[in-house]
């Protein structure tokens, strides 16, 4: 192929380090890694000239996967968003008190649902729209044969789905264009962000919320504070538990009220 023949000055691979390993020595080899792990293939690490990562925090995490003696070079390039999709968003002051959640259910959704009655009582017209593959997540991870923290969270979510509180709407996984329409109407994006392992090396979900004109309340975990800084209202209340949930609910209520 053109890669092995060395017909180009540089080779850029997005997901497979082996592509860089096949290129001749004189070709500059760049590997862009957006995911949160790089298992196996230790023999190809030394052949890569530059790793591209969406955040500094993410790059530090990926260094753990490097083989002994390898000192990889990283360059941070933030991910991009299709902001054109949000150009016609409704002005924030004209939006209904809609609360949104459109990330993986295992990243703290159970905390939000636990305090939903408190939020709804304070803002009676509030509605919570939950997107993503919630049903599939529950089905795959809530079975009796599954153990651990993620399974425990899945069972909590299953109980909420069966006994859905008033004002909670499970929207499912929608096409991006359709999701953007809902995002442009969302007043607050609530993201408790309680991960069981390093998960958010960039967090497109928060970026989409901000691009759509929503206010964001989130927990500063992984790389999100590095990436979004003062654009987000961070809830710093220690390890997620009752104290954190109370502080998170208070912040969400205040943002919904404007």
Task: Compile the SSE list and pairings.
Blueprint: E1 10-13, H1 17-22, E2 28-32, E3 50-53, H2 56-62, E4 74-76, E5 98-101, H3 109-122, E6 127-131, H4 134-141, H5 149-162, E7 168-172, H6 176-183, E8 188-191, H7 204-211, E9 215-218, H8 224-228, E10 233-234, H9 242-257
Helix content: 25-40%
Summarize the biggest pleated sheet.
Answer: 6 strands, parallel
Termini distance? Answer: 58 Å
Mean pLDDT: 88
Instruction: Give the strand order of the largest sheet, numbering strands 1, 2, ... along the chain.
Output: 7-6-5-8-9-10
Could you tell me the strand content as a percent range? 15-25%
Order of helices and strands: EHEEHEEHEHHEHEHEHEH
Parts with pLDDT < 50 across at least 5 consecutive residues: none
* Continuous helix count: 9
Q: Kindly state the number of beta strands.
A: 10
What's the shape?
elongated
Decide which structural class fits the backbone.
alpha/beta
Radius of gyration: 21 Å
Characteristics of this structure?
single chain, 258 residues, alpha/beta, four-stranded parallel sheet, elongated
Description:
Helix 7 links the parallel strand 8 and strand 9 (215-218). This protein has helices at 17-22, 56-62, 109-122, 134-141, 149-162, 176-183, 204-211, 224-228, 242-257, and strands at 10-13, 28-32, 50-53, 74-76, 98-101, 127-131, 168-172, 188-191, 215-218, 233-234. Helices cover 33% and strands 16% of the residues. Strands 7-6-5-8-9-10 form a six-stranded parallel beta sheet, sandwiched between helices. The chain has nine helices and ten strands. The mean pLDDT is 88. Helix 4 packs across helix 5 (149-162). The chain is of the alpha/beta class. The protein is elongated.
